């Protein structure tokens, strides 16, 4: 390649001044009409050229091949309907055809993704290493479902982008979409959940055919409802929240014949059911230092609504002249509390309560029924637990108690200990600083009848017993000395944490359940966790995202804890079941965008193809792949695609190997030209003043 360049002998501003001065002189000479003006102008031009120092530049170049980029979609949705095989075949055939055009370099890139497909990001990464001056075209082999398609508008390209679709023209799919999905609700109320079932065809367009789809509703793995719903219409239902904690609500639409996948036929919604307020009824008997511990603990919890009464003596005691209203600051509403409103309380605590005749046998009957129907009672016992006035001596109540007294209270220091059962139970497991707990000074001896002993005193005597009765729960703390821990006696102990756990277990706090099952995805590993009071729980039944079911054995992971890990687990939703226990977990996203929309479409990427004058092509023909014909198109063309053909731009790029400069003319030549022009101008001007030179002088006579 040859070109003329300048390497001036003076700075550009000085050269500009010389050129301007030369031009002005030339104009003056022309205006005066001097006979040597043209030659003088030539001399001035030669002087400017000498200073500008023109060079003849000779460059040796090598033509460069055009670059065609092939981006393949290798995301999870490409595994459907053998799209991955079609992609491999199309990419191989395309590379062969591009090379057949000659002088085309191929660059390959891929978009991977288990949860979503970021095609535009993959294109940007591929173009980052390709010189734009050589870029002739981009071919994207995909099903068209790109989660970042909106970013295509900001993609700056001056080469055509062609979209090669791997889906078939008659694809269909059914999916279920949650429209209204609340994450929280109130226990014993219901939440409204709305959803829609869609049958989609090519380009995500709803199919014209109408009808119903059978939808199954499950809560915690148990089928609640199964009924047909109209396709394409929003449907609502009320899901009951029967217990606190997390509930797993599943909606599953029956498969459609011939659909691509059933992974998007299921929608999973975890809903956390919370209590509006925890209502606790605390009934205190004989005043003692521990009474304030219970009150302070319950009042410090903003979620607890506490009702506290202290019963000191029966209403029939005292002077006959005393008014009943004068026996207490507030008359004890025993009928209202234990008959009318007992079911409104989540927990009833009897703290060193002694029978005073205030509560009658029918009150105790109602308390027992309250427990059997799902209520909770905790008895914090002291010396009053033994004797005819003890709660254990009330036949209407004694049958729900886990232990009955066997003698008077035993006095003497002892250090509370967690039993082997207690090490497994969430209420007493991992209580802090167990080796440094302070001593208590009294314990009630009992004969255990039922339940689990979580803490013990001297000689293995039961200290804390928890038991289930019917649908409800009963707790028995066989010492009134927990207040010593609160006062820091002998080093103190975790009184607040222990009592909080006991109270919340009785109120069925899910995190404190002794039998638990959970699934969690950690990276690409599925972790199965099991808490149990059993020494060796059986295997867990696991359902993977494909629907396959298998048994997974668990290994011990500490007292009452068992687990298993599945490494390199497939992404998607997993379900686990062990008897009545049910859990749902996911590796990656539970509802991955990758499988929300799976029908092949060109609509999302068509704006990119149109803006770059490329095309969108369907390449599946039965079991084979049919690519469009390939052409070279000159730069600047208005279209790089047409019916059955796709073009790449001819860039004609080159590499400069060497560059050499040589003076356009030697300095002596410019000086000789200047001298010759000036000499010619002198001769012409000098000749004009001599006789016979052709000029005439007229005499003027006066």
Written account of the structure:
With 702 residues, the protein is of the alpha/beta class. It folds into 5 domains: 90 residues, no CATH class; 157 residues, Rossmann fold (3-Layer(aba) Sandwich), CATH 3.40.50; 101 residues, Immunoglobulins (Immunoglobulin-like, Sandwich); 229 residues, Rossmann fold (3-Layer(aba) Sandwich), CATH 3.40.50; 72 residues, Sandwich (Immunoglobulin-like). It has 13 helices and 41 strands. It has an 8-stranded mixed beta sheet. Strand 24 and strand 25 form a beta hairpin. Helix 1 runs antiparallel to helix 2, helix 2 packs antiparallel against helix 13 and helix 6 packs parallel to helix 7. The C terminus is likely disordered.
Outline the secondary-structure elements:
Layout: E1 2-6, H1 12-32, H2 37-52, E2 54-63, E3 66-73, H3 83-100, E4 104-111, H4 119-128, E5 135-142, E6 161-165, E7 173-180, E8 184-186, E9 190-200, E10 212-219, E11 222-230, E12 234-240, E13 245-253, E14 266-274, E15 278-284, H5 291-299, E16 304-310, H6 334-340, E17 347-351, H7 361-372, E18 376-380, H8 395-398, E19 403-405, E20 410-414, E21 417-418, H9 420-424, E22 440-443, E23 446-448, E24 452-456, E25 462-469, E26 472-477, H10 483-486, H11 495-506, E27 516-522, E28 525-531, E29 540-543, E30 549-552, E31 555-556, E32 561-566, E33 572-578, E34 581-587, H12 606-611, E35 616-618, E36 620-621, E37 624-625, E38 629-634, E39 641-642, E40 645-650, E41 654-663, H13 667-687
Parallel strand pairs: 3-4, 3-5, 5-6, 6-35, 8-14, 15-16, 15-17, 17-18, 18-26, 38-40
Antiparallel strand pairs: 1-2, 2-41, 7-9, 9-12, 10-11, 10-13, 13-14, 19-23, 20-22, 21-24, 24-25, 25-26, 27-28, 28-32, 29-30, 29-33, 31-32, 33-34, 36-37, 39-40
Helix pairs in contact: 1-2, 2-13, 6-7
């Amino acid at each position: 390649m040859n070109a003329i360049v300048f390497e001036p002998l003076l700075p550009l501003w000085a050269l500009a001044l010389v050129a301007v001065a030369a031009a002005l002189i030339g104009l003056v000479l022309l205006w005066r009409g001097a006979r040597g003006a043209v030659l003088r102008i030539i001399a001035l031009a030669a002087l400017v050229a000498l200073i500008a120092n023109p060079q003849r530049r000779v460059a040796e170049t090598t033509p460069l091949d055009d670059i065609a980029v092939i981006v393949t979609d290798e995301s999870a949705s490409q595994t459907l309907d053998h799209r991955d095989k079609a992609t491999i075949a199309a990419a191989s055939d395309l590379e062969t055809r591009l090379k057949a055009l000659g002088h085309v370099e191929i660059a390959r890139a891929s978009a991977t993704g288990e949860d979503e497909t970021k095609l535009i990001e993959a294109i940007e990464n591929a173009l980052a290493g390709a010189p734009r001056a050589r870029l002739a075209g981009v071919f994207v082999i995909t099903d068209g479902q790109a989660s970042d398609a909106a970013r295509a508008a900001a993609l700056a390209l001056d080469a055509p982008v062609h979209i090669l679709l791997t889906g078939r023209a008659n694809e269909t799919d059914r999916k279920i979409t949650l429209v209204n999905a609340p994450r929280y609700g109130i226990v014993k109320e219901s939440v409204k959940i709305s959803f829609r079932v869609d049958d989609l065809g090519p380009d995500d367009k709803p199919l014209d055919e109408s009808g119903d789809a059978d939808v199954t509703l499950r809560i915690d793995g148990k089928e609640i409802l199964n009924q047909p719903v109209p396709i394409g219409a929003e449907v609502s239902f009320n899901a009951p929240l029967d217990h606190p904690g997390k509930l797993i609500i599943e909606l599953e639409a029956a498969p459609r014949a011939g659909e691509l996948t059933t992974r998007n036929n299921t929608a999973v919604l975890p809903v956390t059911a919370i209590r509006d307020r925890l209502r606790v009824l605390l009934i205190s008997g004989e005043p003692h230092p521990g009474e304030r511990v219970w009150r302070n603990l319950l009042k410090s919890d903003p979620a607890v609504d506490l009702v506290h009464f202290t019963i000191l003596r029966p209403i029939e005691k005292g002077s006959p002249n005393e008014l009943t209203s004068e026996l207490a600051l507030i008359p004890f509403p025993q009928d209202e509390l234990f008959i009318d409103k007992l079911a409104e309380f989540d927990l009833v605590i009897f703290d060193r309560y002694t029978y005073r005749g205030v509560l009658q046998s029918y009150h105790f009957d109602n308390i027992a029924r309250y427990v059997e129907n799902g209520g909770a009672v905790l008895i914090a016992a002291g010396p009053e637990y033994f004797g005819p006035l003890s709660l254990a001596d009330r036949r209407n109540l004694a049958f729900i108690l886990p232990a009955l007294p066997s003698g008077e209270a035993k006095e003497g220091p002892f250090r509370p200990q967690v039993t082997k059962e207690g090490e497994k139970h969430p209420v007493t497991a991992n209580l802090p600083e167990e080796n440094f707990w302070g001593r208590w000074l009294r314990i009630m001896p009992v004969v255990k009848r039922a339940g689990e002993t979580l803490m013990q005193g001297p000689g293995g005597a039961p200290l804390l017993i928890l038991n289930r009765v019917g649908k409800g729960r009963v707790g028995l703390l066989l010492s009134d000395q927990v207040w010593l821990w609160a006062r820091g006696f002998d080093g103190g102990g975790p009184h607040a944490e222990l009592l909080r756990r006991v109270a919340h277990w009785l109120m069925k706090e899910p995190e404190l359940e002794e039998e638990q099952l959970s699934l969690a995805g950690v990276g690409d590993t599925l972790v199965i966790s099991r808490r149990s009071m059993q020494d060796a729980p059986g295997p867990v039944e696991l359902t993977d995202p494909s629907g396959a079911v298998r048994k997974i054995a668990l290994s011990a992971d500490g007292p009452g804890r068992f687990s298993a890990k599945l490494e390199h687990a497939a992404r998607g939703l997993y379900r686990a079941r062990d008897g009545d226990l049910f859990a749902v977990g996911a590796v990656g996203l539970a509802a991955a965008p990758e499988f929300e929309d799976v029908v092949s479409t060109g609509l999302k990427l068509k704006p990119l193809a149109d803006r770059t004058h490329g095309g969108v092509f369907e390449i599946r023909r039965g079991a084979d792949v049919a690519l469009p014909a390939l052409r070279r198109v000159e730069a600047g063309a208005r279209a790089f695609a047409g019916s059955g053909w796709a073009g790449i731009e001819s860039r004609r790029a080159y590499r400069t190997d060497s560059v050499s400069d040589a003076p356009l003319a030697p300095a002596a030549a410019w000086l000789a030209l200047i001298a010759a022009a000036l000499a010619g101008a002198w001769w012409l001007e000098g000749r004009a003043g001599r006789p016979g030179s052709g000029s005439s002088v007229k005499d003027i006579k006066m």
